[in-house]
Amino acid sequence: MSGTGETDGRTATEVTVEGFEQFYRTELRPVLEELEGRRRRVLQTGAIAAAAVLGGGALAVTAGLSGASGNALPFLVVGGVVGLIVAIACVSAASRRYTKEFKERVIGAIVRFCDPGLHYEPAGSIPRDVFRGSRIFQHSIDRYSGEDCVRGTVGATAVEFSELHAEYKTTSTDSKGHTQTHWHTIFRGLFFTADFNKHFRTATVVLPDVAERAFGWLGQKLQGLSIGRADLVKLEDPEFEREFVVYGEDQVEARYILSTSLMQRILEFRRRAGCRISLSFVGSRVYVAVPCSRNMFEPRLLRGAPDLKAATEYLRDLQFALGIVEDLDLNTRIWSKQ
């Protein structure tokens, strides 16, 4: 998401640069300095474990070269393997503890700074049935995980978002009869949902227009034949049509939802995100899927404590997600629920 790193003065929660700098100095930096000692201990644990494993491996090699008895060498090898497993487990446990505390104390504090009414769950995520209910992705899901869930209200709009990774698996068998499992990503990135203050009778799905951009007129025909999708909805905005393909169960309602102003806002948001976003309008909610390959709120174990610049990156990622409310003008209540 290229938009997450920009400092363009636009915020979703009235946060000023000066205000965040003051917050960093008085609230975040003391916590980060305390956590820095724990980060170093994690790295020290890793270094000690690596040294122990390397030492055991060197001993096994030396024993083998010196003609150690056949009875001793297997024990040295097994000992080295066990040592490696124990070392990995120790480092992994220490890293998980550090990451958990970092998120709770640092990311949680930044979320509350943006809006005290927001609730942050480091291990929480958008439920699988909500993700499926958006109707953006049709493929069956074999593995589903998520983290960094934020829930609350922005202005008059109830929102919820998290990072998600949904996958499906396939299997193949080689010429020797060996079966292999392959995992394929359905979606990885930021998944956002919010109250649209309007109950839709049918579902409208807005997807990146890959087919028409690649195949032109033939792509339009392929869009209309999309298996499992509702009818193709043709709109009057050429620029929007170049970027997106729309499927809807009700042509009139789809066009009613995708007003000229909303289509323009979606285009602007797509440019700010810098990636192929997808949206849907189902029930009384809007869903937005923003693909991203990086984890937005993860601590950086191999670097020192985040300075002001690094902390600001966390803030920008959060503002990017919260800013969807402003991008789509969700706080303007032009409809009332029926």
Overview of the structural elements:
The chain is α+β, with helices and mostly antiparallel strands and 338 residues long. It has one domain (2-199, 283-327). It is built from 10 helices and 9 strands. It has a 9-stranded antiparallel beta sheet. Strand 8 and strand 9 form a beta hairpin. Helix 1 packs antiparallel against helix 2 and helix 2 packs across helix 9.
Largest sheet: 9 strands, antiparallel
Encode the helix/strand succession as letters. HHEHEEEEHHEHEHHEEHH
Shape by Cα distribution: flat
- How much helix, percentage-wise, in residues? 40-55%
Number of helices: 10
Terminal CA distance: 36 Å
Strands of the biggest beta sheet: in what spatial order? 1-2-3-4-9-8-5-7-6
Features:
flat, single chain, alpha+beta, 338 residues, disordered N terminus, 9-stranded antiparallel β-sheet
Short description:
By secondary structure, this protein is an alpha+beta fold. It has 10 helices and 9 strands.
